[in-house]
Amino acid sequence: MKHLHLLLLIAAMAGCTAAGPDYRRPQTDIPAAWRSTLPAQGEPGPNAWWQSYADPVLSGLIDQAIATNRDVLLATARIDQYLALMATSRSRSFPQIGYALGANRQDTGLNPLSGTDSPAYTTVQAGLNVAWELDLWGRLHRADEAARAQVLASEEERRGVLVSLVGNVAASYILLRGYDRQLQIARETKRSYEETRRIFRLRHHHGTISGVELKQVESQYEQAAQTIPRIESLITQQEHLLSILLGENPGPIPRGKQLHDLDVLPFPAALPLSLLERRPDIRRAEYELMAANARIGEAKALYFPTISLSGLLGRQSGELTDLFRSGAGFWSLGGTVAGSLITFGGVSGQVAQAEALARQAVLRYEQTIQAAFREVEDALVGTLKSREQLQAQQRQIESLTEYTRLSRLTFESGTTSYLQVLDAERTLFSAQLDLVQTHVNLLTSTIDLYRAFAGDWVKPDAPGMKGLLETGQGNL
Predict the structure, then answer these.
(1) Hey, what's the signal peptide range on this chain (predicted)?
(2) d(CA 474, CA 76)
(3) Fewer CB atoms near the end CB (10 Å): N or C, the chain?
(4) Where are the alpha helices (DSSP H) in 41-69?
């Protein structure tokens, strides 16, 4: 009885201490404010940020991508993998119970000393065995802590994939609509140049213009004509990219609103630095740091002995039918203390490796934070400068349109050559294409801003956000 009390006391002590350092968030050097600031552009609504475009086609594409994108499915499978590993790790903290069934037929043969021949006999056994490693130094606790942190890191990885995916689908769709608009401009310009070429061919036929002027007009037409297949190629490639993001084979993509109908995303008047704390990549890096920190304790616990309890309870009989009726019972209870004496640096090497991995995790955590600040600053300055550039280009288009009109008037009056008209029209055509690209850049910069903050000024329970926050198998 005294020994049983001692074993129970040891079991109660198990897990009371844990080797290695407890986790503390490292101090990081972060700026006091953003380098660039933006005036408020409305206030975000209650729905998911991409629904501010009010384009059902875009919303449908994003919903499809969330459900079928291969990267998302891979990230979800990794969550399930780490959940299974955590379940395996956690199980080691509890007694492991097994069973054994056996039967043996034996004949000892003739005894040479007594001259007797013992009859053959059968032995049937059934028993339960129990093994339990007492976690006196917290090795199993640290292993479970590391496994749990890895599960949480994998959940943040999946959320990061989703945040990136939604942003990529929205940005790719807007770029596609930008190419559509550029193709429309190129085709309209080609038709205009084609009409000019027709008129100039008639004038050249009647001798009112020279062959030089005709070739200038024909060259202008071919410039617009060769732009069309280039943009059509970009459109097809962009459709293929979007198809892959949707988890489909390359194919056509449906269209919704025109580019000029897609408004700039609203954003709040203030963007607090604390929003970055909810970025999935930062949270993932911290969970990985937690796991690396816990593995230090798991390695340090190897310096101490392991204490294990084992037990066996069963019955045996000469016949299977008598096993649980008249068979004899047997039991055993024991304990084992095992440890390392001389490992020639084996344990200390594992500890040093775990500590080095933890230092690497700290550096990755700090790098992730720095990269997050860079992404936000880039998105802020990109949005600010794209808006300024767009306004300047719109004024340029107005001036070039008037310049083209006046050049045609002076040419028709015979006071200037057609070279001036060519210059005006080519510059206007190029500026119109550039204006579309700048509009695309402005829209995608605001998407980058939402993506940099993971849309975290949107309520997590907002319609459309549920898919971004769900994880593998739910609660841990």
Answers:
(1) 1-18
(2) 11
(3) N
(4) 56-68
Taking 90 as the threshold, does the pLDDT of residue 219 lie above it?
A: no
For the chain, helix, strand, coil in percent to 5 are 60, 10, 25
Which alpha helices (H) appear in 92-210, and where do they start and end? 139-205
Q: What is the pLDDT of residue 459?
A: 44
Torsion from C-alpha of 37, 42, 44, 46, nearest 10 degrees: 160
* Cα separations in angstroms, 365 against 11, 174, 209, 281, 318: 38, 33, 71, 9, 66
Neighbours of 453 (CB within 10 A): 23
Cα distance between residue 350 and residue 356, in whole Å: 10
pLDDT of amino acid 8 = 47
Q: How far apart are CA 232 and CA 219, in angstroms?
A: 21
Which residues, at least 6 apart from 210, have a Cβ–Cβ distance to it below 8 Å?
Answer: 204
Extract the tokens encoding 395: 């004024």
Residue 132 per-residue DSSP state:
E
Tokens of 456: 């975290």
Q: Which two tokens stand for residue 270?
A: 């203030």
Measured between alpha carbons, how far is 282 from 276 in angstroms, rounded to an integer? 8
CATH number of the structural domain 17-91+138-304+347-469:
1.20.1600.10
Distance CA 155, CA 312 (A): 41
Q: Which residues contact 331 (CB under 8 A, 6 or more apart)?
A: 311, 312, 313, 314
Tokens 């991409």 sit at which residue? 50
Tokens of 381: 């300055």
The vertex-76 CA angle with 74 and 78, nearest 5°, equals 70
Q: Are 167 and 469 spatial neighbours (Cβ–Cβ below 8 Å)?
A: no
Q: Are 395 and 435 in contact (CB under 8 A)?
A: no
Q: E-assigned strands of 293-423?
A: 306-317, 328-338
Rounded to an integer, what distance in angstroms lies between the CA atom of residue 293 and that of residue 287? 10
